[in-house]
Amino acid sequence: MTAIGRRGLLVTALAAPAIARFEDVQAQSAWKPEKPITIYNPLAAGGVADVHLRFIGERLTRKWGQPIIIDVKAGAGATLAAAQMVNVKPDGYTIACMTINSLRYPHYQTASWHPLRDFSYIIGLSEFTFGIVVRADSPYQTIQDLMEAGKREPEKLNYGTSGIGGTGHLLMIEAEQSTGARFTHVPYKGTPDWMQALLGGHIQFVADGAGWAPFVENGQVRVLAMATEKRFGKYPDKPTLVEVGINAVAVSPYGLVGPKALPEPIVQALHDAVKEAMADPGHQPLLDKFIQEPWYRSPTEYRAFAEKYYVDVKPMLVKAGLAKT
Fold it and tell me: Where do runs of H (alpha helix) occur along the chain?
């Protein structure tokens, strides 16, 4: 046999294991569930996130022919669902919706999990749009009226949010620090609870994500101000808090995570299927109903965001008195 022939056999022999590994990866990348998938929801049943997850779940069921179960795990400042991932087998059959609170909570107190070490980031979904709203018959016509009332009679007025240390709570801490007003915080599990409290007169206003938007449409609730960086297109006549001199902007995206060490082919398959569901023609109208923004992030982009935010948010939490240096 010639030297060239021997080299050809050697190259082929060396290449064979690599080709086999490549074929294995290709086979794994075609991961499809063979039984139901459970998605833990960190917010209340019937709220915006719940509706959104069920929309996505229905489309995943059509794609894969397997039921997608949305299991509500509300509590612990909307961190309970993601926290469950520390006890979950990394096989793709149990994942969680993670709110941004999970990137703050470990700064507040000792947790049995770490947001950067214990999760596999799958996909970014959407971002809550925050505002401050009152009942339609409220005597407070502007955000300035409300803040002045909070200065005249500190802690007399009650406001609702989706939990202690959540985005709405932080928003109001910043507003109080900026204006000198003081209010009494009443935490709830989610939109259905604080909307019922607002309409029932148990609280005077809500500072939270736009689960209140349908109630604005039907005339039961009125927007005083938006907590966005610029005026929101749906409410062009409503000022931002920044516009009226209140230095507060709400940041509150959410997405899907799995347990740590979730195999790459499973992460990719889940990502691709959910991204396909987000391209459904009905997806954007659903977000529009609750004036939410799409917040798509790939697994790599989502993790990069989490790593940066986890570090950047701590000084604000220290200033708010929620975290120690």
Answer: 3-29, 48-64, 80-83, 105-108, 143-152, 167-179, 191-199, 213-217, 264-278, 283-289, 299-312, 314-319
Are both 118 and 258 inside the same structural domain? Answer: yes
In the three-class reduction of DSSP (H, G, I as helix; E, B as strand; rest coil), residue 323 is classed as: coil
Phi, psi at residue 218, to the nearest 5°?
-90, 5
Q: What is the dihedral sign for C-alpha 38, 42, 44, 49?
A: negative
**Whose CA is closest to 118, among 261, 7, 2?**
261
Residue 206 contacts residue 132 (beta carbons within 8 Å): yes
| Same domain (yes/no): 59, 70 | yes
Are 122 and 136 in a shared domain? no
Question: Which pLDDT score is estimated for 42?
Answer: 94
Distance (Å) of CA 225 to CA 43, 173, 312, 316, 324 = 24, 16, 26, 22, 31
Domain membership of residue 284 as a residue range: 37-127+252-319
Residue 187 belongs to a domain with what CATH number? 3.40.190.10
Assess whether 118 and 181 both reside in one domain: no
283-294 pLDDT tens trace: 999 999 889 989
Encoded amino acid at 318, one letter: V
Q: What is the pTM of this model?
A: 0.83
Considering the chain, what percentage of its residues have pLDDT values greater than 70? 91
Query: Domain holding 273: CATH number?
Result: 3.40.190.150
Closest CA to 183 of 210, 156, 201, 218: 156
Question: Is 159 strand, coil or helix?
Answer: strand
Query: What count of residues does the chain have?
Result: 325
Cα distance between residue 125 and residue 293, in whole Å: 9
Q: How many other CB atoms sit within 10 Å of the CB of residue 136? A: 13
Q: How far apart are CA 255 and CA 26, in angstroms?
A: 26
My answer on whether 53 and 113 are in the same domain is yes
**Amino acid occupying residue 16:** A
**CA 39, CA 14: separation in Å to the nearest integer?**
43
